[in-house]
Amino acid sequence: MKKIILLGLLFCMAEAAHANPVIFDPVGSIANVLVLGSAIAVEAGIVTLILLFWGMETKPVYIAMYIGNLAVYFVLFLPLLEVELNLWIAEALVVAIDGVLIKVITFYDTFRQETFQPVRWGYAFVIAAIGNIVSYYIGAAMNR
Prior knowledge:
Blueprint (H helix, E strand, L loop, with lengths): L1 H16 L12 H22 L6 H25 L4 H19 L15 H23 L1
């Protein structure tokens, strides 16, 4: 119960701060960190829940997707925005990289349950797109 209350407070703090995960200023304010962390946590959670249908493990997949999405955000997405690439092109590249990440983690037994079914490339990209769309709208909703 305490975890739910803490998460609720964190989401309310980010909502009141009007932050934007596309414009990340690590020194500027905690609000940006809260929105970014919330958006990536929700994306990793959605992807993990969808991958349960293919027999993937919950905790290892969530951790891998969270860390992978953080890495993609800082290593790929922010530098692409700094060279003033179109936001939608940058998002498409992130979806492609996330799809590859999803497919790669399905190759390792650490992420598989006994009931594992292989994930096709097309499904990996669709799952990545769903996760990124939800993540984008979470960030946008918290930005209002």
